[in-house]
Amino acid sequence: MKFGDLKKEGHWPTLFAAFLYFDFSFMMWTMLGPLATEIGESLSLRGFTMSDDQQATMLAIPVLAGALLRIVLGIFVDKFGAKKTALVSQLIVIATLFYAYMSADTITYSQLLWVALGLGFAGASFAVALPQAGQWYPPRLQGTVLGIAGAGNIGVVIDFLFAPKIAELWGWASVFLVGAVLSTIVLVAYMMMAKDAPTSVYKPNPKKLRDYLKLMRDRDTWWFNLFYAVSFGGFIGFANYMKVYLMNTYQADMSSFGINVMDESNVKVIAGYFGALCIFAGAMLRPVGGAFADKMGGIKSLYIFFGMIIVLSFISAFVALPFWGAILVMFLIMANLGMANGSVFQLVPQRFGKDIGIMTGLIGAAGGLGGTALIKTFGWSQGAYDGYTAGFLIFAAMVMVALVGISLVKTRWRTTWGAVSGARI
């Protein structure tokens, strides 16, 4: 397939608009992660010190809200169309960003939680952008189209690269102003470029609540939910908590590196750079995981990726790693989580090809719930034990449960739907 085919068929302005919408939405969804330290310091100056658990809650709410809202917006796409759903959702996000900017000097912790909830609508954009782009194109181009539209998870890397520096120069509230302005520009571009596919191209097949309930009675749905809760949940959870983890554990090392190597005295900016490096691995290697799964089978790939994550998590839990060792281990954890995401979604269409829209919503929600659990677990670990050993052990245990689950289903999957799927399972 050549990218020129995308211009000959479908509607490339909609594809580009969907990519922009999702990419910038992902940036807004994860904005609190790279600003957590700055926001915490701002609240402390006004007499409120966030506990580790409260900080984790602030970071977890956008992930949780985005997970649940993916199902809601998915239903709205069927009922009202993708474009109307996207416009309303984006307006809520923009209003949230402007509110955070204007109230920053007096904002309370409770109000920050409402901001976090509003940003959850940005995380739910996955359920809008992908269907809107995919509806314009034939089945043989779906992989490429959904890959382009879904490449927005790179937005979290952009957050970590630029948000701490902008906060250093103009204050953390300015990051929300920049986000609001950029989101408004994207909204205008989206309004002008995006179109819902006409019935001559795509015949809507609205999902009803009973369709969701039917799939939720299928045991394979829950297995996939578990696998994605570990893989994507691990990715988005670590991504949001990355800066807090690095600041709590390796602040002195990052400060020294920043001063001696980069001539940067603000350790929070350096933490953003190292966070971006680790997150980049997971964001960019997701397609590689899918390619591995195509070649050797999704089950075998998950054995490898989950197995590596378990080993690396145990290393993080039990070995007093030097700074560069910790960065390498976290880089590899994120890389394997990203590749595991690709492997899970190599299997899902083989099992639920006719219900891929509903399953994307359900599994995506499970991934968000997994990320919420990871953030809260690591916040609890730091608060209770002044370290992350317990957090890494609990995460490793969950990955081990997923690995056992793969062992339980692999024979049945390979001898039933896998045998007629036409793909390596």
Summarize the structure in words.
With 425 residues, the protein is mainly α. It contains 18 helices and no strands. It has helices at 5-8, 12-29, 32-45, 52-80, 82-102, 109-123, 126-134, 142-149, 155-170, 172-193, 209-216, 219-260, 267-284, 286-296, 298-318, 323-351, 356-385, 389-415. The longest helix is centred in the middle third of the chain and has 42 residues, at 219-260. The chain is globular and about 60 Å long. The two termini are 24 Å apart. The mean pLDDT is 89.
Please give a handful of descriptors for the protein shown.
425 residues, mainly alpha, 18 helices, globular
Helix content: over 70%
Largest sheet: none
Q: How many whole angstroms does the radius of gyration measure?
A: 21 Å
Determine the structural class based on helices, strands and strand pairing: mainly alpha
Distance between the amino and carboxyl termini: 24 Å
Subunit organisation of the chains: single chain
What is the tally of beta strands? 0
How many H/I helical runs? 18
**pLDDT < 50 stretches:** none
Shape: globular
Beta-strand content estimate: under 5%
Q: pLDDT average, as an integer? A: 89
| SSE string | HHHHHHHHHHHHHHHHHH
